[in-house]
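Homework help board

Subject: predicted structure for assignment chain

Our instructor gave us this sequence and asked us to write out the predicted structure in token form, then describe one feature. I got the tokens but I'm not sure how to describe them. Can anyone check?
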Amino acid sequence: MNLYIVRHGQTDWNLEGRIQGLSDVELNKTGISQAKALRDKLSNVNFDLCISSPLKRAAKTAEIVADNRCKIIYDGLLVERSYGKKEGAISEKAPYSTDRKLGKKDDDPDFESLDSMLDRAEKFLKKIQNLNAENLLVVSHGTFLKAIYYTILGYDENTDFLAGNLQNCGYEKLELPTKSS
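My token output:
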């Protein structure tokens, strides 16, 4: 199965450098334009299904990119990582997480650990593994998409989970083996 993992379009909080996490922020005009451009770029792909985070910025991106070509399902497993009390703060491009590596925890109990996020990504991938789909559009959030990426391609205790990031409306095509493969 081909997974097209897509990060949502731009929001005003992206522009301001604010940490979004579970905050339900809408796309701005640029984000809508980005989603339309990605829709056009992927117009030759026949998506069997779209699965999206229910947060507004991802849901709107999914609606635009899917463009009525396939059914959209909203799945809470695809929400962004909770950043707890840090949500809404300006990140100033500095890491806003102390847990770049596995097994570390933030002091804020509402801050989702890497281990928890990776478990959530694995649960999502197991859930979709046997869908009868050749091309699946998955719309989510930057940090959570990294969890999906590393769950498919592998990681170890030296993986820096804060390295790299899809740009707004960036996408990556990944192959997810089915159980029968």
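Reply (TA_rk): Your tokens look well-formed. For the description, you could write something like this. Residues 114-128 form the longest helix (15 residues). That's the kind of observation they're looking for.
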